[in-house]
């Protein structure tokens, strides 16, 4: 067990600290973090369930045997993106991808699939990860390179929201608005941070995302939270201070709240209207990950402790490999009524496409179409119907 790392340490009176056994780990969100965590956890046979790490590298069960996830891999998105390119009769396409495990592995998948379909890559460029405002020139250079291939209007962008937001700002600076058709990955498409200030640049984007549904009751729960009733979350006060631009009276000074000149009253309330509260659709995958552990532990308890209520000695002696087997065999309906089975998630996704268009009130709405409930039964007719409904001014076969 990972809790045995400090077994050699004891207190001054000779006693040893009590330890709780770690049954499993939830997370991480980013693929890069999950890979590092998975490399450690496999040494201690501790199962890990991620809710948003989509890199296809994590599908390698020889390296990541204790890693599971409630989202499909990026290979699924790449397959749909290539099918979009084929249906639009594009003979070549440009690819911009993030300089991270998420982006690089996705680019490798796209490159392989495009080659199999005899589609050329016009321009391929990396988005510098976490580059900061000082690197505006690198984003400008990417847009200028796109301009060197005037006949290639289709661009696949595999990246995260912050980096793609900076790319769209570069599109604006270089007067390239409306010159390209963007196909976006789940890491940035439909994200507010990308849209704000870049409305005209992202208009018309075709997004490929895992299908997600709202978690019932979550909005009411979150909007009712305050620092007084949510003390278990050590970061909630920071969120409160940032949201209401005030300093919580009991909090320590940090580089972030030093700028706030007034104290929070405690009477502030989070609302969708005044605070821009925008729930992440991916919350479903988080709830599914939590439920997966709950069902697996229940299954493990019923097998090892059939005559006992609660945890028995057999269960306490079991290691993570036992829990992993139960995680792999459970099947259940998540909170949002989607079916969860870890043997199938890496193979097929539920995917939907959306097309972002600006309304008269300068707000964006998405036209959505579910194109796949299983990769084995890819709904090509749904994809064609969706593409034909868009005003792309391009021929669709």
From TrEMBL:
<dbReference type="InterPro" id="IPR050726">
    <property type="entry name" value="mGluR"/>
</dbReference>
<dbReference type="Pfam" id="PF01094">
    <property type="entry name" value="ANF_receptor"/>
</dbReference>
<dbReference type="GO" id="GO:0016020">
    <property type="term" value="C:membrane"/>
</dbReference>
<dbReference type="InterPro" id="IPR028082">
    <property type="entry name" value="Peripla_BP_I"/>
</dbReference>
<keyword id="KW-1133">Transmembrane helix</keyword>
<keyword id="KW-0812">Transmembrane</keyword>
<dbReference type="InterPro" id="IPR001828">
    <property type="entry name" value="ANF_lig-bd_rcpt"/>
</dbReference>
<keyword id="KW-0472">Membrane</keyword>
<keyword id="KW-0675">Receptor</keyword>
<feature type="domain" description="Receptor ligand binding region">
    <location>
        <begin position="19"/>
        <end position="338"/>
    </location>
</feature>
<protein>
    <submittedName>
        <fullName>Metabotropic glutamate receptor 2-like protein</fullName>
    </submittedName>
</protein>
<dbReference type="GO" id="GO:0004930">
    <property type="term" value="F:G protein-coupled receptor activity"/>
</dbReference>
<keyword id="KW-0325">Glycoprotein</keyword>
<dbReference type="InterPro" id="IPR000337">
    <property type="entry name" value="GPCR_3"/>
</dbReference>
